[in-house]
Amino acid sequence: MQSFSELVDIFCCVETWLVDKPLNCPPVLNGFQLAAFSGAVKEKSRGRASGGLMVFVRTEHGSCDRICNSKGTSLIEFMELNSFVLVNGRTLRDTPSQFTYVSPQGQSVVDLVWIDSLHLAEVRDLEVLGIVSGSDHFPVIVSLNCVIVSDTSSPCNYDPKSSVKVIAWDKDKADVFINCLLFSPRICINFDKETINSIYENLYSALMESASQTGMFSTKLIRRDVTVTHIKNLWYDEECKKMK
């Protein structure tokens, strides 16, 4: 008969009465790691503390790959020590975790997806697509519980060449620039009551307006196109170029 710890992947403990974070998981939760902890509050000097929450996440999960070498063990220990959880093998479409690498030499799960424990709820699903391509690795798709909002009010016309205005310092106009800056209404603010962002925006506007008044602006052309250069490895032949 299976124990309760073998039937679940996430185990929550409430009203733990623990003020300090435990160093190790209880023996009954062998194969789990502590993903989140909220200490109990002790309001009086006598008596026990009230509240407390601990969330444990299973680290041992089903996988088609039964081999784990020393490097894999070191990686898992490092990630778990820094509160990261392995997503492979823990979602609806990847239970147990499917092979992500298949070659004549063997097959394994080497394309891993990690997420910090605080954002574990943002993962909706993970799926390994068994698509045959020019690579020995299969694509891994991760679905997240988030909405991406894009601005569709203006057309996205890509221009590899664009110009921006920059300040071109002219020492002959330095006195005029300083005078404009000193009398700028942008810096006449109460620094004790304004936020850091507000102070920055006012100072930036004061500098730009003073530069504009003294004629210290110049137009600079910026190229935004990116050229990708392939490293000429011995294995990167004409067949690889065609497959790409």
UniProtKB/TrEMBL annotation:
This is Endonuclease/exonuclease/phosphatase domain-containing protein. InterPro entries: Endo/exonu/phosph_ase_sf. GO terms for molecular function: catalytic activity. Gene3D superfamilies: Endonuclease/exonuclease/phosphatase.
